[in-house]
Specification:
about 230 residues; Double-stranded beta-helix; six-stranded antiparallel sheet; 4 helices; 19 strands
């Protein structure tokens, strides 16, 4: 399997090149083209052995994470094939090699993964979920393989050796082992609000973090009042 990521321009995308028999999983609705010999199957997020109620719980956790209940599975047959994937937001796509590190993806940042990646959900707590702007549940990716994430604007990686502050709405993913708290940006609440930052995520520990340069919720807050009212 080979994944080619287009990082030029404002609209990132990826082309997954599959050998015969290989599979790749993506977020539903992210495919924009596929070879004629690629079989596309819709699968649920239910894990093997979960049962009916376990599948419902997985679906609810997925929707809380900003993801859809279903995933798309692609498998090439009778020879090599390829699948083109792209996120909804304009911005970059980043490919991660998952081996010894487990990645925790914020809501909506997961795009796709190879067959060796195991996906699960991680509840981050009611308080953190309400104030982090990243959702109540994160997507946890572990195992061996390749992981695709997407961000709004430019994606950059930060190596954390002790601690770092990330503005709310800019988190893409971080490695397991890092912990964070929600706090004010400045010395006091008034100065924090006047700075335009408000609440931030204060990480501690050692690991890696991917951040996006733009916050889609802020853009929505600016554009929303300018749009004409919806006609009933």
């Amino acid at each position: 399997m080979n994944i080619e990521v287009d990082t030029e321009g404002a609209f990132g995308s990826a082309v997954v090149k599959l050998e015969s028999g290989e599979k790749f999983i993506s977020e539903a609705g992210s495919m924009y083209r596929a070879s004629s010999n690629v079989e596309i199957e819709v699968v649920s997020r239910k894990k093997e052995g979960q049962g009916f109620f376990g599948g419902i719980a997985s679906g609810l956790r997925a929707m809380m994470a900003g993801e859809t209940y279903h995933l798309n599975s692609y498998q090439a047959g009778g020879g090599p094939g390829e699948v083109g994937l792209a996120p909804t937001h304009q911005g970059e796509v980043r490919k991660l090699e998952v081996h010894s590190e487990t990645w925790i993806c914020s809501g909506g940042s997961y795009l796709g993964s190879s067959e060796g990646i195991e996906l699960d959900t991680q509840y981050q707590g009611l308080t953190k979920g309400m104030f982090s702007k990243e959702g109540l549940v994160f997507v946890k990716a572990s195992g061996q393989g390749q992981l695709l994430v997407n961000g709004f604007g430019r994606i950059s990686e930060v190596v954390v050796d002790n601690g770092i502050t990330i503005d709310n709405g800019h988190l893409i993913a971080f490695t397991e082992g890092l912990e964070y708290d929600i706090g004010k940006a400045g010395g006091g609440w008034i100065s924090s609000m006047m700075s335009g930052e408000g609440l931030v995520m204060k990480f501690r520990g050692q690991g890696r973090i991917l951040v996006q340069s733009h916050d889609p919720s802020r853009l929505g807050g600016i554009l929303g009042p300018l749009l004409p009212p919806r006609k009933s």
